[in-house]
Amino acid sequence: MDNNSKLYVGNLPYGMRDDDLQQHFGAFGQVQSAKVMMDRETGRSKGFGFVEMGSPSQAQSAIQGMAGQQFEGRALVVNLARPREERPGGFGGGGYGSGNGGGNGGYRERSRY
User: Fold this and answer.
1) Which spans does this entry mark as compositional bias, Gly residues (predicted)?
2) Which residues, 6 or more positions from 25, have their beta carbon under 8 angstroms from its beta carbon?
């Protein structure tokens, strides 16, 4: 895949689906793939997606032709997709020993008797 051919498409109407993207962007060249990102839990559109065009020149034509176009009252945002950034950390925050009561780091005090 050529990164100069992959587009980020934002501010999508929530009713727009993959085949809608493919159809609209097909006016500017060959669409290799078109994907509206969906929320796994709700099944609703996240309001953005990605379109991979057949060549960098087709991608530029699509940016010029589609950026700012109104769909259901929403102006599309279209630009070259950036590579996904690695998320730091892994499992999301919180240190060891947090929330386990007392100021002793979770260890029970030894009885003196």
Assistant:
1) 89-106
2) 7, 31, 34, 51, 53, 62, 66
Helices 18-25, 56-66: crossing angle, 10 deg rounding? 100
Domain 3-80: assigned CATH number: 3.30.70.330
Greatest Cα-to-Cα distance within the chain, rounded to the nearest angstrom: 84
Q: What is the DSSP string of 37-60?
A: EE-TTT--EEEEEEEEESSHHHHH
Q: What angle (nearest 5°) sits at the alpha carbon of residue 69, between those of residues 12 and 42?
A: 5
CA–CA dist 67, 63 (Å, integer): 5
